[in-house]
Amino acid sequence: MQFASRRAFFYAAAAAAVLAVPAHAADGPAAQLIEKVAGEVIELIKTTQGAQREAGIRSVLERYFDLTYMGRAALATHWDGTTPAQRDRFLKAAISAEARAYAERFGQYGGQTLAVTSVSNRANGVFVVASKLNQSNGQPIAIQWEVRDSGQGLRITDVKIEGVSMVMTRRSDFNSYIQNNGGKVDALIGELERRAGR
Amino acid sequence: MVERFLNVFAPVRRPALAVAAAAALLGGCSRDTGANEVWDPLEGANRFVFSINRAVDTIAIRPVAVLYRDWMPAPAQRGLHNALENLGEPVTAIAEVVQGDPRRAGTTLARFVVNSTIGVAGLFDVATAIGLTKTKEGFGNTIGYYAGVEPENGGFYIVLPMIGPSNARDGVGLAIDASVDPFSIVAFSISSSAGWIYAGARFGATVIDTRSRTLYALDDLERNSVDYYAALRSAYTQQRAEIIRQKREKTGPRAELERRDKLALVR
C-alpha cells in the first residue's frame, strides 16, 4: 500500500514535471503578467457594462500598470517643473480618462483571445512581451507590452498597438497641448479633469 | 542668446535640440528626430490644412463612409477593397525590385495575374487562398528602407489636402508611386481625360474604402486626445516607422529594444 502510494506520488510528480513545461515558447513572470491582465480584461468585457466596467478597468490599471512611471513619461520635461500636488491631480485625471477610454473602447465581447508570442528581456530589467490579439473576424492585432520592475514588482509601463505606443502618443498629445496653452501644465490638468467629470 | 532662442522650443529637450540644431547647421536638412518629437516646421500651415480636411471629412467623407460601412453588403465591401489592393500590386512589385527583392516581386506579380484573372479583376483574393501571401509596398517604404536614419525620421511632417498625415519621405513616395503606376500610364496615354477619370475614380473609391476602415480608430484617437492634431501626428509617425523598421531585417527586435533604451522616456 505504501509502495503503491509512493508510486502514485512518483507518477504525480512526473505528470507535474510534464505539465510544468511551458505550454508556449514564451513564458516567465512577464508573460504570465500579460496573460493574467488579458484574462481579467476579457472577463470584465464579458460580464460588465458602463460604470461597473470602468471601475473594473481602473482597478486593473492600478494593480498591474506603473501609472506614476507612465505619467512621468507622458509629461516628459514638464514633470520636473510640477509640484507633488499637481502630479497627484494630473495622475488622477489621466487615469480616470484612460479608464473611461478603455471601458468605452471595448464594446461587446466578440470572441477575442490574446496569445503571447515572445518575450525579450534586457539587462536593465525591461521585458518586452509581444502578443497577438486574435479576433474572430479580421486580422490579428499585434500588441507589445513593456514590462519593468521599478520597486513594486513587475508592472506594465507601455502598450504598443500595431507599433503605436500609448505613452508616446499621449506624450505628443499632452506636450502639444501644454505648449499651445502658454507652457502651463495646469491647463492640461484642468482639461483632463473637465473630461473626467463629463 | 542661444539659450533664449532655445527657450522658444521649450517642450523639446534642450540637449537634443542643440544636437539637432548643430546637425542642421552642419549637415543641411537631415535631422534625426527619433520618436521623441516629430519634426514639424510647417505646423501652422499643417494645422490649417488639417482643419480644412476635418471640415470636408465631417460634411462629406465621414457620412458616406459610415453609410458605406453600415449599408453596403460585406462581400461587396471586401470585393472593392480587394480590387483596389489588386490595382496596387504592380507598384508593390516595382518597389520590391527596387528594394532588392526580385523573388518577392515575382510572388506579387503572380498574385496580380491570379487575382486579375481567376479572381475576376481582383474582386476575389484567390492568390492568398493558394498560398501567395500579400505584401503592400510603395516608394515611401523604399526610401525609408534605404535612408540611413531612424524610421521615425521621415523628414518634415506635412498634412496633405484630402490625403491627410504624411511627411517628406511618404509624400515623395506617393508621387513616385503615382508616376510609375502602369494603369495610370496606360490611362493617360489613351487621353488626358481618360487618365483623370481613372485617377479620380480610383482615388474616390480609395478614400471611401480607407475612411470606412479607419472610422473606429480615428474616432477613438480624436475622443481620447486633448490635441487631436498632435496625437494623430505621433500615431502616424510611429505606425509608419514600425512598418519600415520591420522591413530592415538587420534591425531585429534586440536593436529595437536598444533603441527604446536610448530613447529613455524618463530621465
Q: Note the beta-strand portion of chain A.
A: 15-25%
Main β sheet profile of chain B: 2 strands, antiparallel
Number of E strands of chain A: 5
- SSE class of chain B: mainly alpha
Count of discrete alpha- or pi-helical segments spanning 4 or more residues of chain A: 7
Number of domains of chain A: 1
Succession of helices and strands of chain B: HHHHHHHEEHHHHH
Q: What's the number of extended β-strand segments of chain B?
A: 2
- Which strand-content bin applies to the residues of chain B? under 5%
Radius of gyration of chain A: 21 Å
Kindly provide the name of the CATH class of chain A: Alpha Beta
Name the quaternary structure.
heterodimer
The averaged pLDDT of chain B comes out at 84
Kindly state the mean pLDDT of chain A as a whole number? 84
Report the principal-axis shape of chain A. Answer: globular
What is the N-to-C order of secondary-structure elements of chain A (H for helix, E for strand)? HHHHHEEEEEHH
Looking across the biggest beta sheet of chain A, what order are the strands in? Answer: 1-2-3-4-5
User: What does the overall shape of chain B look like?
Assistant: globular
Give a summary of the structure in a few sentences.
The complex is a heterodimer of chains A (198) and B (267). Chain A has 198 residues and is an alpha+beta fold.
Q: What does it look like?
A:
The complex is a heterodimer of chains A (198) and B (267). Chain A is an alpha+beta fold and 198 residues long. Chain A has a single domain (4-193), classed as Nuclear Transport Factor 2, Chain: A (Roll), CATH 3.10.450. Chain A contains seven helices and five strands, in the order H-H-H-H-H-E-E-E-E-E-H-H. Chain A has helices at 2-20, 29-47, 50-64, 67-75, 84-105, 166-179, 185-196; strands at 113-121, 126-134, 141-149, 154-161, 164-165. A five-stranded antiparallel sheet of chain A has the order 1-2-3-4-5. In chain A, strand 1 (113-121) and strand 2 form a beta hairpin. In chain A, helix 3 (50-64) crosses helix 5, helix 4 crosses helix 6 and helix 5 packs across helix 7 (185-196). The longest helix of chain A is centred in the middle third of the chain and has 22 residues, at 84-105. Mean pLDDT of chain A is 84; it is low at 16-25. The model of chain B is unreliable at 1-35 (pLDDT under 50). With 267 residues, chain B is an all-alpha fold. The longest helix of chain B is centred in the C-terminal third of the chain and has 32 residues, at 192-223. In chain B, a hairpin with a 3-residue loop joins strand 1 (157-160) and strand 2 (164-167). Chain B is globular. In chain B, helix 3 crosses helix 10, helix 4 (74-98) packs across helix 10 and helix 7 crosses helix 8. Chain B has a two-stranded antiparallel sheet with strand order 1-2. Chain B has helices at residues 2-7, 14-27, 43-71, 74-98, 102-117, 126-129, 139-146, 168-180, 182-190, 192-223, 228-247, 253-263, and strands spanning 157-160, 164-167. In chain B, 70% of the residues lie in helices and 3% in strands. Classes of the chains: A alpha+beta (198), B mainly alpha (267). At the A-B interface, helix 4, helix 5, strand 2, strand 5 and helix 6 of A face helix 10, helix 11 and helix 12 of B.
